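Notes, Module 5: Reading structure tokens.

Key idea: the token line is not a picture. It is a compressed description, and you learn to read it the same way you learned to read a sequence, by spotting repeated patterns. We will look at two proteins. The first is printed below with its tokens.
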Amino acid sequence: MSNWTEHFIHTGPGGSEDYRNVMANCAQELATVFESAERPYSGMDPMLLRENIFGMSLANEDAEPLDTVIRQVARDIARHAIVVQHPHCIAHLHTPPMLCGIAAENFIAAQNQSMDSWDQSGSATFVEQHVIAHLCRLFSYPSEGDGVFTSGGTQGNIMALLIARDWFARQRSGHNVQRDGLPPYASRLRIIGSAKSHFTLEKAASVMGLGQQAVVRIPTNPDGTMIIEALESTLRQLQVDGLLPFVIVGTAGTTDHGAVDGLRDISRIARASNIWFHVDAAYGGAMILSQAKQRLAGIELADSLIVDFHKMWFQPVSCGALLMRDTSDFKYLLHHADYLNRESDDLPNLVDKTISTTRRFDALKVFMMLRAVGTDTLGAMVDHLLQQGTAIALHLREDERFELLALPALSTVLFRYADLPETLGIDAFNRQLRVALLKRGIAVLGETTVAGKVALKLTILNPCLTIGMFVDLFNKIVELAETLKSDVLAEHV
């Protein structure tokens, strides 16, 4: 047995000595990686990187001491990963994590609590309940409000829409989907969202057996917000067609525009039609801490909402929450297992409120963030990101080499390189430019489509960036664009 005890933490005096050494080695290697990172990606050819990684043997006879493996991971993997802390890594809703969140991850991994039952988590269950209660107060939910931590927006949206479907079936016909399966009218059920709502609406419809055809997309205004008049007319048409919308999804921060729908108006329409009102606030929910919180007016009226802490709350992935206006609606997810959450238990088992069983203690990241950073500082960071997004957009609008495609609603800036001769296709060139920036390790930018135009995307989630860093980024984009432009024009001579 002696040859495997070294791979574990042990209780009692001296039982954690190996753990201390391993963590010290990891910290030292990672510190070297961060302090030597000059670019957001190393620039190694992706196919060569793949070849190197696939060349690392996973066969038993090639196993090495852990300190050797740690050094190898730092040298051959961590150095060629995307560096989210770098000023020119600015593509996605993927934030550099706060130190408090990284510290929390140490506790989470070492103690390995499972949040499905109290006898696997102890104090961790109460921490999650405490954090959830605080979040419900932040979002002005009534005392009946409740919630549960999720892996992120996708899981949260799927759970919310599943609950909405089962609630609707119970309200409409007393049908119990948990017990009896889909109701006879399942093919007529519809999910309503905007044209800019997250693609998880289709994913949820597929998972629930309704099919993607069950999702009805409402047109949006130029700023990406749902057109309320179109929502009302669509609902009238669905009624004429004999279809049954059971949920309307409002978005507080669309992925591309950062648009925030008119939540009060959507709530009014949902209530009048006896339809569930869900808000996807994965991106924009952090505004509840900021001076811009009035932009979320109406979110407190939602039957359910989701928020992601690995976005503008600066926590390590994965970390999100689903909040419910009425805790009794979690009954649509409740299943009992004799070995896990017995009906006779007098201690809380959080598996009662989720589609997950084994689940990480992610609430600790939010707990430590609130304790160590505080909501005032967090709110100031969010305000800074909103202001910086506007400042960067205005800077781009004044630079004739670029075309600003939309004013930012949150911290997403949509633009493209436009200093091109008519002989070059601007969409194809910007696609090529983004990929070249990535592969050469110059910058990690996003790409999307705005009004039929290919757009480069900055998703500003690092409150430590300065305007000068963005100016440097734009200069590097122009420098590479000029090189690519010359190469392309030379090919046509």
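Here is the second protein, with the sequence above and the tokens below, as before.
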Amino acid sequence: MLVLSRKKGESIMISDTIEVIILETDGDMVKLGIKAPKEVGIHRKEVYLVIQESNKEASSDRKALVKRLTDWQEK
């Protein structure tokens, strides 16, 4: 893990296309601004994990459906 110190108004770059800007600090809270291409998905981690779990469930449901259809066609 890379640990950086930044002040309000300062930023960091991730690759050539993503900039993370410190907008505000208030005690232990930090407001970040993120500039990135539209095709880059940006989510809070807790939301990202829910999306990943939902995708796994949907994939599992599709696999089960394909198996049932395949089994049915073989009969």
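Summary for the second protein:
- DSSP finds one helix and three strands in the chain.
- The radius of gyration is 21 Å.
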